Amino acid sequence: MIADKVLKGLPLDDIDIFDVHGHLSGEPRFLTPDSDADGIVKTMDQVGVNAICLSSMTALYAKPEKGNDEVIKAVQKYPGRIYGYVSPTPYYEDGDFEKYFTDHPGILGVKLHAECQQTVIDDPRYFPALEIADHYGVPVLIHTWSVDEVKRIMNLAERYKNCNFIIAHSAMLVYRDACVEACKKYENIFVDTAASYTFEGAIEYMVSKVGVEKVLYGSDLAFYDCRHTIGKIGLAQISETDKIKIFGENARRIFNRL
Amino acid sequence: MINFIDANCMVGKRMHSLEGVPQTAEEMQAVMDRSGISHAIVYHCIALESDIVMGNGCLDEEIGTSNRFIKQWVVMPSFFEEFYQPAQLLEKMKQNHVSSVRMMPHTHGYSTKPYSIGKLMDAFAECNVPVFITMNQLSFDDLYALGTNYPAVKFVICEPGYRGARQYAPILENCKNIYLETSNYCHHNGIKDVCRTFGAERLIFGSGMPNGSATAATSIVRYSDISEEEKMAIASGNILKLLEEVSL
To answer: Domain range holding A42?
Structure first.
């Protein structure tokens, strides 16, 4: 049983755990220790996480090309353990965003973080990258922190029907009901479990409202410690089957390049 | 298996109850059972949201006869007879088996400078009563001032957040009387770093229920890259030591 192992602090190495929400490299505003590929994989081993799909903080905050290259290097260093999201910028044209999908099989999707790029999620300047994502049918993970942002993700889900959109940090109180509405309305909208500080019962709430198939395990490692989210799901009052779906099965289903 | 004592818990139904969130003592006990938490230090939500005396008084009714809850009172300095004077407070705490206190200076609108809470702190220092404060009630400079102005008082800083490691490090280094509660001190390897740099004795387990998750909070300690002895100290040993030192 998963809960028995969590209560003993043992690695969950007999189930498939796929983390859909990770980050490489440091955050300027505060300390993020061991946020390189080696540090991330070491923690994954301790907890029993098979694989993680991550984006680069450098790509989100400063220089997408440099950050995306950093992701590619991490993917190459840990094949099958680390997969990547690439991130566009709204401020200038990336010469060849498509190359990430034609040349690098370990790049699985696109990450958008409009807040730290000081714009909005459905900024048309993201459209060229999203059209490429739609063409390849890859998932798009979107940092979310408000009801308004969830509504903007619905706009994108309407426009790019071939993409699966993942609302990050879905259990935060202020917009959890908006996430429920979005998941119910759009087949191509999913939620992840990453959240810095959520109430007890957040997983049970999401599963009961949107159905377990829509809930994906995301931790925010190494921005945040994945040990936190492991317990939230591992000790949740849901069935063993549902835990296995959230931890990995659902992600394996919607990440089409795996 | 590691046993946990939860040092940061608020009980009582709030006006804006949220579906699925444990709030009553009974609901919290169910979560404690699932998470491996034997006991919890609790204060009442009315003491946060409305009236301190009324809230403290509601604790007995809320927790009933359960021996799994350790009562904590919310306190404040009193200049207009709205709350007890320090000596009277200590006596009341003794009578009611209350072994720790919580201050909410921002919510309740008072300063933590000596001119405001000095007498209260003298009383707590004399009886080794630990003082809990949630970090959203303080600035980092306020926290440093607390640690240095009242060196004989033990402060447990609740919900320190995952973004403050650079701010807490010099405070932990300079103020040996400050402890961090772990519920959301959860940046990557944060617990391990504190153990290595300042010692596991500076960390005290808490869940932050109902706003925080006990299943998540216990998990981060269980899986941390530290020794079993350090985990046990954080989970229960450190808070038990603080409570054993109380002499009301």
So the answer is: 2-254
Of A173, A200, A204, the CB nearest to B209: A200
Across the interface, of A29, A222, A232, the residue whose CB is closest to B215 is: A232
Read off the pLDDT of residues A150-203 as tens digits, 9 standing for 90 and up: 999 999 999 999 999 999 998 777 788 999 999 999 999 999 999 867 888 899
Tell me the C-alpha distance between A192 and A169, whole Å: 6
Q: Report the chain A residue with the minimal C-alpha distance to residue B2.
A: A8
CATH code for the domain of B89: 3.20.20.140
Taking residues A83-112, report their average pLDDT. 92
CB-based contact (8 Å) between A28 and chain B? no
Give the pLDDT band (50/70/90) at residue B3. Answer: very high
Output the domain CATH number for residue A74.
3.20.20.140
Which H, E and C letters describe chain A, residue by residue?
A: CHHHHHHHCCCCCCCCCEEEEEEECCECCECCCCCCHHHHHHHHHHHCCCEEEEEEHHHHHCCHHHHHHHHHHHHHHCCCCEEEEECCCCCCCCCCCCHHHHHCCCEEEEEECCCCCCCCCCCHHHHHHHHHHHHHCCCEEECCCCHHHHHHHHHHHHHCCCCCEEECCCCCHHHHHHHHHHHHHCCCEEEECCCCCCCCCHHHHHHHHHCHHHEECCCCECCCCHHHHHHHHHCCCCCHHHHHHHHHHHHHHHCCCC
* pLDDT score for A196: 66
Count up the domains in chain A and report the number: 1
Higher pLDDT, A95 or B160: B160
Residue range of the domain that includes B116: 4-244
How far does the CA of residue B221 sit from the closest CA of chain A (Å)?
8
Q: Does A4 touch chain B (CB under 8 A)?
A: no
Q: Which bin fits A9, alpha (ψ -120 to 50), beta or left (φ > 0)?
A: left
- CA-wise closest residue to A195 among A224, A158, A222, A162: A224
Number of separate domains in chain B: 1
CB-closest option in B22, B165, B225 to A201 = B22
CA A179/CA A205 separation, integer angstroms: 11
Between CA B96 and CA A199 the distance in angstroms is 30
pLDDT at site B28: 95
Mean per-residue pLDDT, B32-41: 97
Taking contacts as CB-CB distances below 8 angstroms, the residues of chain A near B223 are 9, 46-47, 227, 230-231
> Is the pLDDT at A94 greater than 70, yes or no?
no
**pLDDT tens, position by position, B93-143:** 999 999 999 999 999 999 999 999 999 999 999 999 999 999 999 999 999
What's the rounded Cα separation, in Å, for the pair A217 and B141? 37
Q: Is the pLDDT of residue B68 over 80?
A: yes
